[in-house]
Write a structure and sequence with these properties.
Elements (H helix, E strand, L loop, with lengths): L1 E5 L2 E5 L6 E5 L20 E5 L16 H15 L4 E6 L1 H12 L4 E7 L7 H14 L3 H15 L2 H6 L1 H12 L3 H12 L13 E6 L7 H8 L5 E6 L6 H4 L1 H13 L2
Parallel strand pairs: 3-4, 3-5, 5-6, 6-7, 7-8
Antiparallel strand pairs: 1-2, 2-4
Length: 260
């Protein structure tokens, strides 16, 4: 496993000459969101970037958008000489993944989307902009945001039985660069749906029964727009699926890739 900077993004690359998987984390995440499910990728080459403004990667001075993220990720693939990838994504990353697959269909072999959403609900857009303003007040605000996300975005079962998962979610959000996190909140608030009806690749959809972002109803509506999909709802899981239900996610992902 190597960690390199490509086009301003820090990227973890497992290496190898086999099929590649591009892993796209969500808002408040980093490349580490995928660590619990790495066994599901087998011998495939796994590419895990920290998105612009997240983790170790700096945000663009002019701000961020879904289109900006798509462009930067295509640049990573070009720099690594990778023509086609399987894409797995979480939360805001699923919006990026959908646009990537629609706009660059020749580059994407499949999509595996966790806590997926087509775009934010209209009622969520202004609160997401407000979160950007809160984040800009500094690291103390990120702690408050992290605590609120742990409370609202994880399941009752996780809160009762998985303290390490709670710590992972809190650490991931709390350590985000404030300005970069704010930029990504604004990118999410402005995100629009991709024309997923155009997709011909197989799509895996996984969400939690207590996921208030990629809700089961929202995922079902997204599934209805897709030509080739399979969907799973994990019982006792909130929005942070790979932290809350890692073994179930590994099983589902492994089965999905074995059928490609």
């Amino acid at each position: 496993m190597s960690s390199v900077q490509i086009n301003g993004l820090w990227v973890e690359d497992s290496g190898g000459a086999g099929e590649a998987v591009l892993c796209i984390h969500g808002l408040g995440g980093t490349s580490n969101f995928w660590s619990p499910v790495l066994p599901a990728f087998g011998e495939r080459r796994v590419i895990r970037p920290d998105l612009a403004g997240a983790g170790r990667s700096e945000a663009a001075p002019e701000g961020l958008s879904i289109a900006h993220h798509v462009e930067r990720l295509v640049g990573v693939l070009d720099a690594l000489g990778i023509d086609q990838v399987h894409v797995t994504a979480h939360s805001m990353g699923t919006i990026i993944a959908q646009h990537l697959a629609v706009e660059h269909p020749q580059r994407v072999r499949s999509l595996a989307l966790f806590g997926a959403l087509a775009a934010p609900a209209e009622a969520a857009r202004e609160p997401t902009r407000n979160r950007a303003r809160q984040a800009r007040s500094g690291p103390a605000a990120l702690q408050e945001i992290a605590d609120a996300i742990v409370k609202a975005a994880t399941s009752a079962e996780t809160k009762a039985e998985r303290p390490v998962a709670l710590a992972l979610v809190r650490e991931s959000v709390m350590r985000q660069p404030p300005e970069g996190y704010a930029h990504n909140c604004e990118a999410l608030a402005e995100a629009q749906p991709a024309e997923v009806e155009r997709l011909k690749v197989p799509v895996l959809l996984v969400t939690g029964d207590e996921d208030g972002v990629g809700t089961p109803a929202g995922v079902a509506a997204l599934a209805a727009r897709l030509a080739d999909q399979r969907s799973y709802v994990l019982q006792g899981s909130g929005h942070w699926t790979t932290y809350e239900k890692p073994f179930e996610c590994i099983r589902i992902l492994t089965d999905f890739y074995n059928k490609q």
